[in-house]
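task queued by scheduler; priority normal; single chain, no ligands, no partner chains; default sampling; output format set to structure tokens
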Amino acid sequence: MKPHKPLSLMWTPNKTILALALVFLPLLLALGTWQLGRAEQKRLLEAQMEQRQSRAPVALATLQTPEPYTPVMVEGEYDNQHVWLLDNRQRDGRPGYEVVQAFIPESGKRVLINRGWLAAGPQRSQLPDVPRVQGHTTIFAEVVEVSDHPLLSASSEQHSWPRIITQIEPAVMAEQIGEPLAAFYLRLDASSSSALRTGWARLNMSSAKHSGYAAQWFAMAFALAVLTLFANSNLGEVLRQRRAMKGRAE
């Protein structure tokens, strides 16, 4: 019996699959490349954070332009009359708020302090009791740069205190208390006696997560490329014949 002639690879275009590949393959590759770029940015930021957080705390008053993630020490007292509750903050799956207060330092502008998290009450109308801090105190914290999200705001429907907000905006909050505020805010260290539940998430997404997303996009691009190759050629038949011929030879 004459052996079968080996099949040659032939191109048999499938217009539908080709059209999908032309649209989605560049998109998937672009998304993967973008995530790799974001991963590199986050790696640099993580290294910067680690370097700054390893320093000993410095007096805030000595810093002309405090850099984000710099550990600082501030002496003064809390403004207990003005408290904001940063909404939609969860810990361990429980809804709650982060407590933000103005702090009056011994020198310089008032600065906003994020003291940490408190659980929400069983009813939306039942706000948590915020522990007051009376008199002179020393706090340890880190500088945080204010972020801006177009759908969030420090404006509040309440005219009494505490006020519920969805974003820290010093300029808006300064108008509410009639006092100037620093353009950044501080996030309390757990070692401060006035700290509530801290456990801060340093970044909303780590470099490792971005790398993982990049791998997923590239894997999808690879799968689409393989699907396109098989759908537009007789590669599947060629491979099956070669396996069969190899099996007979053995």
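post-processing summary
- Strands lie at 58-59, 71-91, 94-105, 110-119, 137-144, 163-165, 181-188.
- The chain has a mean pLDDT of 82.
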